[in-house]
């Protein structure tokens, strides 16, 4: 009887066990949605944001910029929205206007409390989109095209993410990446207490934290990761719009996934119409397809410029939404964290005149900071350095992505507040016990701010580590605004070069009210900070928040909590160093706007947010930041008219490939078209440049466009005020390009004297890649 019962119940138990296992695998407590949209903006005439170099004017595209979003929601509860933008930093006015649009579209579903917009810190994007004066001086004021490209693109990426919301799971993984960042201000780092430094193996954070998003039906649909390294692989003299190393890593990973997941991309071009495998040049492919194609290429000569529509540029784009499959497109974002003192120029800083290492304390060469430059791993080729640092992040992300197994579980929650950092009371502990009450200060920049960094040195006689200043520049400063005694004492030992927090004409020069935010997804906590934290400042903030979250073996978190800092988020307020680093007054300390106790203020307020998160209490919303959009001044001249020589049409070739040309992988193919100013049409979600491969006898298939690392679109005028212009398209043939017949095309838009816009296209002669 007992044996019979065991036999009878055994299949039932096995069935229940099987159902239970299936439940563990497929049951999801979250809804997840991801989206991505073009935010490239104007690629000509506009000053680039980051280096504050007035001579760095955009003149083309290295590869396009994107906004990438994820939403995680409880089916009947809270949700959080995180947007990673290929821009130097977030902007208060951009965030305000995005939130207004979300309010109009979704009501109270997405607000300042649960929405974070974070910049990757590329120094190769168009400027002019921040609302405070000091950040738009070099861009000749506010640039409406830059601003609208960001607001529109962020909104569209969020709409995609919202529409893609489906049941899914999130996995987290963490690992060390050792060769993608070095400390560019080690003398300041060494001023931190030795006992504190001894707790860490490196003087920069080497950990990458990655989220893997998995749809219940489709499987993996995206990944977001946080890793600290500056977006300064591209130098202060570069003029091509670029996402720098993090934007490159995102492009590499999205292409890697697309080409290794569904199998819907052929690895070769057959004699028929199969789509070629177009890849970023770091992804290995074996090609066996080769023909003698010169005779076929000779039958396709260059075409003169022709009228077209904007739709053609979008439709021919390699990653066009018009050709997407039914499943959501894979979205990969490489987010920024506490990168304040972390440089991607990992070979170190050297003097360009002698080749010797720069002075350790001041980063000078013979007393001059202008001669001291950091070297990337591809030195002297900044494009190669960008590729290498991007590739290193990409490869680590793939490793973490493939091995991710810890699933996020638990509440979705958030806390947000605004804090006026210009006069905030802070209670700090004193050595030996007790506390002391101090204050933050109105924003101010020190003399060493003007010295720049080894990633992009400044000019004149400014040096890092200057805690004295000099009489001449004080005189110049006083013509703008002489700081008062209280401000000088508050900011000590920073010698004030620009008293930006007290400069209000024609409107605010610097922010004072800053957003602080915590987003929670299960055991993951994201600290949204509006600036660039140094390595040790970030460590102190994370540790302080973790102490609150795990205090008393909190049932909410326990000891298993992952904390990441999302830097440059929701607005921008420059740097945050430790108190000890501030004393040294290198660039980062001189750019810590609110004085030596800035970090203590952050820690104090984030501990309050964390406490509210644990206890389920609300927090004060704080004072609202200003909306200065209607006060903005724009001095960038508009495009007046485009022209070509008599007898030449827009899209005609000025330089074609040689007849009967054969190129090999690694060669540079260059063609030049008569063109028009790219500001006439930003070609959002389209392309200015396109490489096509011949499939069959007469079908041209898109292979590479201006969102590919290997294709460069370079725009130029023969003279500054000339109405004529050229578009130079350079294709560095990747090692993975398939053999075949190719041609290069250009899309553009010309403005007439009456203001009308006409789109055009042109094509090079065909050539062979063998």
Automatic annotation (TrEMBL):
<keyword id="KW-0732">Signal</keyword>
<feature type="domain" description="Neutral/alkaline non-lysosomal ceramidase C-terminal">
    <location>
        <begin position="606"/>
        <end position="769"/>
    </location>
</feature>
<dbReference type="Pfam" id="PF17048">
    <property type="entry name" value="Ceramidse_alk_C"/>
</dbReference>
<dbReference type="Pfam" id="PF04734">
    <property type="entry name" value="Ceramidase_alk"/>
</dbReference>
<keyword id="KW-0378">Hydrolase</keyword>
<dbReference type="InterPro" id="IPR031331">
    <property type="entry name" value="NEUT/ALK_ceramidase_C"/>
</dbReference>
<keyword id="KW-0746">Sphingolipid metabolism</keyword>
<dbReference type="InterPro" id="IPR031329">
    <property type="entry name" value="NEUT/ALK_ceramidase_N"/>
</dbReference>
<dbReference type="InterPro" id="IPR006823">
    <property type="entry name" value="Ceramidase_alk"/>
</dbReference>
<comment type="similarity">
    <text>Belongs to the neutral ceramidase family.</text>
</comment>
<dbReference type="InterPro" id="IPR038445">
    <property type="entry name" value="NCDase_C_sf"/>
</dbReference>
<keyword id="KW-0443">Lipid metabolism</keyword>
<feature type="domain" description="Neutral/alkaline non-lysosomal ceramidase N-terminal">
    <location>
        <begin position="30"/>
        <end position="604"/>
    </location>
</feature>
<protein>
    <recommendedName>
        <fullName>Neutral ceramidase</fullName>
        <ecNumber>3.5.1.23</ecNumber>
    </recommendedName>
</protein>
<feature type="signal peptide">
    <location>
        <begin position="1"/>
        <end position="23"/>
    </location>
</feature>
